[in-house]
Amino acid sequence: MFRDALLDALALVLPVECAGCGAPDRSLCAGCRAALAGEPQSHRLADGTPATSALDYEGPVRRAILALKESGRTDVARALSVPLALAMTEAVTGPRGVAGPPVETLLVPTGRAAFRRRGYDPLALLVRRAGVPHARVLTQIRASTQQKHLALDERSRNRAGTMRATRPLDGRRFLLVDDVLTTGSTLAEAARAVRAEGGEIVAAATLAYTRKRVQHPGIHSLNVS
Questions:
Q1: Whole-angstrom Cα distance, residue 85 to residue 161?
Q2: CA angle in degrees (0–180, nearest 5) for 62-65-67
Q3: Contact at 8 Å (CB) between 57 and 69?
Q4: Does the domain at residues 27-221 carry the CATH identifier 2.60.120?
Q5: Which of 28, 124, 145, 163 could serve as a FRET partner for 109 with CA atoms 20 to 30 Å apart?
């Protein structure tokens, strides 16, 4: 195929390896691209908000997301944007989709330190690659420690009070978007900040979810096998 021939030629000039498995000469090999085929899973957050996730956060999916977030691999953003867009669409138009006035896309904000370290916002990059406009009405007002080493209850306390809306949001409705759903504490804090200024969160969508961590009393997984 012409596309493969072009990739082979580019690999000679700009050698790369698969972000999902480390195979040479492709940003994502065929097998890892196949792993990014989204199969939306439905959850309900502790506050009752319906949430949809496209992928299990494991194997090549996890490695590709971490490559984008921590290794500057923006070359995988377009491939990752496809399942995220699927989750976003499913969240607002699927079987549990929402009706009523228009729904705006709202991203969980990245911290200033993380943005300075990376030089870009991975989540915003994914949404741009998906061609979806998004509102900019949330900001992080207090840094929190890294979540990955915290227990479930500690995560909620760590995120509490870290975000605020930058303007009144009365009458506006939002689809809240994040990259990975683990315990729901980050989404819950963003939703609280929106509701505090009169906005409505009608649903949430994430690129991936951590299966073992999602299955706890704070999040009800509706169709996770």
A1: 29
A2: 105
A3: no
A4: no
A5: 28
Q: Calculate what percentage of the chain has a pLDDT beyond 90.
A: 65
Report the pLDDT value the prediction gives residue 8, as an integer from 0 to 100. 43
Question: Residue 21 corresponds to which amino acid?
Answer: C
pLDDT, mean of residues 195-214: 90
pLDDT of 1 above 70:
no
pLDDT at residue 219 in the model: 59
Question: What's phi and psi for 4, nearest 5 deg?
Answer: -65, -40
What are the residue boundaries of the structural domains of the chain, listed by start?
27-221
Residue 97 tokens, joined: 């989709």
In tens, the pLDDT along 87-116 reads 999 999 875 566 678 899 999 998 888 889
